[in-house]
Amino acid sequence: MKSIAIMGASGHCKVVADLALLNGYDDIVFVDKNPEIDMLGEYPVADEDTDLDYYIEKKYDFVVGIGEASIRRKVQEMLESKGVNIVTLIHPAAVVAYDVEIGAGTVVMAGAVVNPGTTIGKGCIINTSSSVDHDNVIGDYCHISVGAHTAGTVTMGDNCWLGIGAIVSNNIDICSDVFMGAGTVVVKNLTVAGRYFGIPARRLK
């Protein structure tokens, strides 16, 4: 039996649970701070405050199913401090090149494509039908949203969010803590943290 505890109890967690099932896990539990939730779909929800240590002692694998990057980072770092096994989950319908390096806790969803020479940090979400082209460097706790795409040789810092359908052109550097809204097109380097929207991307002041 393969057992996994998914931190959180949200809609994104349901997608992560399906991903875990497709990766051979047959014992799946959510762990959340809301004691009033006891089921999410067909899976039980345990109380983080009272039950987390049980799943650690039972040597469950762990992954964080929280969409918000700052919270995802905080929870994953807490798990790291406890020495648990944080897994990477890749959907069988994703295409990931042989030499791609992916950090612990990253999830790669159905239809995603990650091309050769790319490095993806820990705790990232490479969402449904997105693509990360060759020789990208994607930092920790980034989210490449549904249908978003990066061209070749893109470097993206930590805690970035590339919104639904957004596009980053080739040879672009993006600093950490950048939010790029849905449909945004990035055609030049983004060197200042903040929220960017439009075609081409402009920072919201």
Automatic annotation (TrEMBL):
Residues 4-79 form the PglD N-terminal domain. SUPFAM superfamilies: Trimeric LpxA-like enzymes. The record marks D135 as: Increases basicity of active site His. The active site is at H134 (proton acceptor). Signal peptide: none annotated. InterPro entries: AcTrfase_PglD-like, PglD_N, Trans_hexapeptide_repeat, Trimer_LpxA-like_sf. Substrate binds at S10, G11, H12, G67. The keyword Transferase applies. GO terms for molecular function: transferase activity. Keywords: Transferase. It comes from the Bacteria. PANTHER family: ACETYLTRANSFERASE, UDP-N-ACETYLBACILLOSAMINE N-ACETYLTRANSFERASE. This is Transferase hexapeptide (Six repeat-containing protein). It comes from Pseudobutyrivibrio xylanivorans.
